[in-house]
Amino acid sequence: MADEIFHPEEKVPESGVYQVQHYRHRLYHEAALLRGSSFPVCSECGHNVRFRLVRTAPPIECDRNFATVKCQTAG
After folding, report:
1. Domain for residue 18, yes or no?
2. pLDDT tens digits for 40-61?
3. Residue 23 · residue 45 · CB < 8 Å
4. CA distance 49 to 9
5. Domain span at residue 20?
6. Most buried among 19, 24, 63, 68, using CB within 10 Å?
7. 3-state SS assignment for residue 60
8. Nearby residues of 55 by Cβ (< 8 Å), 6 or more positions away
9. CA–CA gap between residue 59 and residue 2 (Å, rounded)
10. Is residue 45 part of a domain?
């Protein structure tokens, strides 16, 4: 999945850190996104922004020492 490219308005498949690739106006940067949310549209390049998973990072609520909700696992 790390090489898969995601587009705005698609559902985020895994919580984690994503590389954000803008069209022409900004260098790549990283952002944390939560599973089940939607990849956002950029206010500058609109739907021309792309996302690539760098590393998964489950929400703290899913950690056994901090569990406050029942979390789904990948796959």
Report:
1. yes
2. 999 999 999 999 999 999 888 8
3. yes
4. 11
5. 5-62
6. 19
7. helix
8. 16, 17
9. 19
10. yes
Predicted pLDDT of residue 45: 96
What's the order of all strands across the beta sheet hosting 5-6?
A: 5-6, 50-56, 16-21, 29-33
- Is 71 part of a structural domain of the chain? no
Position 1 scores a pLDDT of 62
Structural domain count, the chain: 1
From CA 49, how far away is CA 20, in angstroms rounded?
7
The candidate with the shortest Cα–Cα distance to 49, out of 57, 38, 60, 59, is 38
Ranges under pLDDT 50 in the chain = 75
Tokens of residue 28, six digits: 């790549």
Amino acid (1-letter code) at residue 31: A
